[in-house]
Amino acid sequence: MCAIGDDSKEASIICTALLRQMGAPLVVARANDRMHQRILQLVGAHQIINPEQEFGKRFASRLLYRHVIADTTLGEDLMLTEICVQPSMAGRTLVDLELPRRFGIMVVGIRRGDTKRIDKPSPTEMLREDDTMIIASSESAIPRLIKEV
Predict the structure, then answer these.
(1) Which stretches make up the RCK C-terminal domain (predicted)?
(2) Would the pTM of this model clear 0.85, i.e. be above it?
């Protein structure tokens, strides 16, 4: 892991190159901007992170979609998101909502009320206003779901 701070891009590039030269099986490096990211790719970093950019994306998502409680990126275009049940969903079942067909969303868990426990979703059980759903989807599915449901 090469996580040298903002002050020295050159040092992080050299560190990443040396780690690769020493045969490190996985080199994760921290980039400050796109150019820095590109150079780290060129010297052989396997994975590049930009914490400020990641935080900015999550914060913007929270501002735009107030019903989103938390989200985690799982892959190139796969997210795990905890979202409040929308008022129009309450009293309906997952079968009624047809989320996989309409939005490409899979509900993988339901949290009832304020509990910490997450239960396996039942497709025929009615959703409640105080429920939250844990869903797996593409990033683009979340705004469509909130807008259309």
Answers:
(1) 66-149
(2) no
User: Which of these, 145, 20, 29, 3, lies nearest to 88 by C-alpha position?
Assistant: 145
Q: Above 70 in pLDDT, residue 118?
A: yes
Half-sphere exposure of 25 (CA within 13 A, CB side): 0
Per the listing, tokens 């009624």 go with: 96
| Nearest by Cα to 32 from 73, 59, 72, 4 | 4
Q: pLDDT for 34-74, tens place per residue?
A: 899 999 999 999 999 888 887 787 777 667 666 666 667 77
Q: Average pLDDT, stretch 115-142?
A: 91
Q: Are 132 and 69 spatial neighbours (Cβ–Cβ below 8 Å)?
A: yes
HSE (side-chain half, CA atoms, 13 Å) at 56: 5
**Mean pLDDT of all residues belonging to the chain:** 87
| CB 64, CB 70: distance < 8 Å | no
Q: Are 83 and 126 in contact (CB under 8 A)?
A: no
The pLDDT of residue 64? 64
Show the domains of the chain with their CATH numbers: 9-49 (no CATH), 66-148 (3.30.70.1450)
What does the alpha-carbon distance between residue 71 and residue 87 come to, in Å, rounded to a whole number? Answer: 20
